[in-house]
């Protein structure tokens, strides 16, 4: 069920926090739609919603330069 944003619950929405959990040491191959992490949304220290983070495409192997580019993009996504 999705609540509409109203003035009554607007303050509650501001209290929502999130945590991203992911494996820092993924090993190729990684397959399209493979779960590589999870994002959880919290309100008053209780999980209110969770989503899997999945691979957009299959990765058979990765070069260090490509991996560094990936990390940079991922950090931008999180900020």
pLDDT < 50 stretches = none
The spatial strand order of the largest sheet comes to 1-2-3
- Beta-strand proportion: 25-35%
User: Which structural class is indicated by helix and strand composition?
Assistant: alpha+beta
| Euclidean distance between termini CA atoms | 28 Å
Rough shape? Answer: elongated
Helix percent reads 25-40%
What would the average pLDDT be, to the nearest integer?
79
Q: How are helices and strands ordered from N to C? A: HEEEH
Q: What oligomeric state is this?
A: single chain
- Individual helix count: 2
Count the beta strands. 3
Largest sheet entry:
3 strands, antiparallel
Radius of gyration: 16 Å
Short account of what is shown:
With 79 residues, the chain is α+β, with helices and mostly antiparallel strands.
